[in-house]
Structures are given as C-alpha cells and as structure tokens.
Amino acid sequence: MLTVTTAQRGRREAELKTTIRHELERARSAIESLLAPVPDGVLAAQVSPLQSPLVWDLAHIGWFEELWLLRRVGGRAPHEERHDELYDAFAHVRGERGELPILRPEQARAYVADVRRAALEVLDETPLDPGDRLLADGYVFGLVVSHELQHIETILQTLQLREQPYPALPGPAPVGGAGPSDVLVPGGSFVLGATEERWAYDNELDAHEVELPAFRLDRTPVTNGAYLAFVEDGGYGEPSWWSDEGWAWRGAENAGHPLYWTPGPGGWSRRRFGRVEPLPPAEPVQHVSWYEADAYARWAGRRLPSEAEWEKAAKGACGAEQLLGGVWEWTSSHFLPYPGFEAFPYAEYSEVFFGEEYRVLRGGSWATDPLVARPTFRNWDYPQRRQIFAGFRCASDA
Ligand SMILES: [Fe+2]
Between 20 and 30 A from 58 (CA), which of 67, 143, 214, 383? Predict the structure, then answer.
C-alpha cells in the first residue's frame, strides 16, 4: 500500500515537473519572439521614462529566476553580485535604468540562457516537497513562470509607446453580440479570492465570503465608440464629471481624449504599435487612466464596479461578457489586503503596495497570458497610469 502511494506521488511530481518545464519554455519563447524584430540598439534604448529599456526587462527576468530558483532553491552562488543592484526593481526607477551599466543585448541573452539551463537542472534535482510551502505544487517555479509572463505585457507597453512600426499584433476582441447593455447580478454572498489556483499570489488569499447587494454591470467593456460620445459631448471640459483629483490631473496633462488618439478632419484615429489607423468604434477603449474611467462613469450616470463586484460577476453566470483577456478593467477599489493576508514568499510583490495610492484592475488584457488572466488575479496601478492596456465597464446599484 505504502509503495503504491509513493509511486503515485512520484508520478504526480513527474507530471508537475513536465508542466513546469513546458510553462517555462512557453514563457521564454513568447519573450524571444516579441523581442526578435527589435534591433539591439532599440533594445538598449530608454524608449520612455515610464518604462525600462527592453534589455533591462530581459535580464531582469533572468535575475529573478536566478534569485529564486538557482540561489534560493538550488543554493547556488550569485552569478554576479552587482546584478542584485542593477536588476532589483526597487533599486532604480524605470526612467533611470537606461543610464545604468546594464548588460548589453548579447550579454543579456547569454545570461538568461545560462540561468535557464541551471534552473532546469535545479528543477530536475529538487523534490517538490509538499511540506515546504515554497516547493509544494511547484509554487516557486510557478512564481518565476508568472513573473516572466507578466513581463510580456510590460514589454508590449514599451513597444506600444514607440512610434516606429512593430509587426501587427492581435488586440482586444470587438464588442459584439446581441444582448442587453447591462446585466443584473443578484445580491448574496460569494467567495472572493483564490481557492483552487495552485500558483495564486499572496494578495489573492485568504479566500473569504463577501456579501454584496444586487447591482447592475455593463454586459461588455465600454467601447471606443461609446467613449467618443463622452469626448464629443465635451466631457473633458466639464468639471462636474470629474473627481477633484481627476480634474487636477486632466488639467496638468492637458488631456482631452485617451492616450494614442488623434482627432482629424476625416474622423478620429489612433496609433497602435507604430501604425496610425482609424479608431475602431466597436473595440473596447484602452489607454484611459482611472480618472478618465471614473469621469466617464459619472457622465453616463453610472459608477465603476468594486473589485468584489467585478469578481462576483466573473465567477457567476450573470451574463456579463468579455471579462477576461480583453482589456484590464479599472475598479473603484483601492489595493488592500484580504482578511488573513500573509506576505508570501516576499513582501515586495504585494504588501509594500497596499494602501490608497493604487486602484485595482481586473480581468487581464489581450496582452496578458491566460495563466495570469484569471478571475481572482489582482493588478493595481496609479490612477493616472495610461500606457497600460486598461479600459473599464460601468456598474450601478440595482
Ligand atoms: Fe519584474
């Protein structure tokens, strides 16, 4: 009996290791194909003060993998001590990273390949001890996979900021289908947070019951066409639609429309990965700040949903559509810990960001890997942030 159990456990572990290897390879080939069309000179350039040079992202992915898999799990010595200072995201703000003595593109490619070879050795030789929270279900390997997948999106944000054309990419699916403009989500309790996701982040825990009154939620995200009606109605010139902070932001930015939009005699256009094209009216609006989302909602006689409302809609069969993998959706919620929160495996992923400075985004965008774009995943950002692939949908009390 005991031998059977041991054999089963061994088989399960071998399967899990195969999954991890596959996910690591999948993430890496996605990063490589994104960066392949970009010349080395551009990889090393500081495209925008808002983003790191692309080659920093690449080496930072390797550094994070080295830190957790090679050093922490494998007990190996640091590759180069100075990488800790260069590639720790807390050591330097993004706008400074182009000035640092970071690895050149060919060095960065060699570094990440070395780290990966060693990481696969560590995976082979490490038992995924269910009694060790870092190793149980391959958690730390999942952490490294998720981190690399999340940087795909960061890289895409940088490529979108560039004015030079990049090969065509898919975007959010246009909003379509027949149906009501909004749906009713009945009142009652539901479980907020991750219950089955083996590689959930600490901020998705503890899952807990939340009681919500009934509310209405847009069936689909707000489209470019709908948002344009707000712009053309003079929404950016009417302070009553804006919060005080939002109105101050709008003035300081001189914002009159979403980022990358341009008005013209023949109608509105937008720039997407270096190509100017007519604004597609049925596509979900992107590149709006939280302030813009909040102002639009007020103009529409609605409000933004809370993150709990959003998650309840995403977990239930209420009829809301395109919640996952279209655009990130701003919510009214600040980024705060759930009851019973415990930082794991490090405080710098979530804990240091908790507070009223950030707003939560949900759902994942077209640029987010499906492993990350799950109903319980919490993203957060400053309310003024616009280079992210963020839109929103509106809600109202029932
Ligand atoms: Fe990172």
Answer: 383
Q: How far is the CA of 324 from the centre of ligand 1 (A)?
A: 22
Task: Report CA(349)–ligand 1 centroid distance (Å).
Answer: 9
Ligand 1 center to residue 206 CA distance, Å?
24
Lowest-confidence range among 74-88, 257-271, 322-336?
A: 74-88
Q: For 140-163, write each residue's pLDDT tens digit.
A: 999 999 999 999 999 999 999 999
How far does residue 60's CA lie from ligand 1's centre (Å)?
7
Distance, CA 51 to ligand 1 centroid (Å)?
A: 12
Contact status, residue 314 vs residue 363, Cβ threshold 8 Å: yes
Label residues 15-36 b or e (16+ Cβ within 10 Å = b).
Answer: ebbeebeebbeebbebbeebbe
Burial class (CB in 10 A: 0-12, 13-18, 19+), 351: middle
Evaluate if pTM is beyond 0.90. Answer: yes
Q: Is 211 helix (H, G, I), strand (E, B) or coil?
A: strand
Q: How far is the CA of 52 from the centre of ligand 1 (A)?
A: 11
Distance (angstroms) between ligand 1 centre and the Cα of 350 equals 12
Q: How confident is the model at residue 3 (pLDDT cuts 50, 70, 90)?
A: low
CA of 67 to the centre of ligand 1 (A): 12
Strand partners, 271: 276
- Ligand 1 centre distance from Cα of residue 50 (Å): 14
Q: What is the mean pLDDT of residues 331-351?
A: 97
- For residue 89, the CA-to-ligand 1 centroid distance in Å is 6
Confidence of residue 12 (pLDDT cuts 50, 70, 90): very high
d(CA 80, CA 82): 6
Q: Give the strands of the sheet with 390-391, arranged side by side.
A: 379-381, 355-362, 328-335, 390-391
pLDDT in tens, 163-193: 999 999 999 999 987 889 999 999 999 999 9
Residue 4 confidence (pLDDT): 64
The answer to whether 249 and 384 are in contact (CB under 8 A) is yes
Mean pLDDT of 271-280: 98
Nearest to 190 by CA among 170, 172, 212, 174: 212
Distance 91 CA to ligand 1 centre (A): 12
What amino acid occupies position 264?
A: G
What b/e sequence results for 88-118 when a residue is b if at least 16 CB atoms lie within 10 Å of its CB, and e otherwise? eeeebebeebbebebbebeebbebbeebbeb
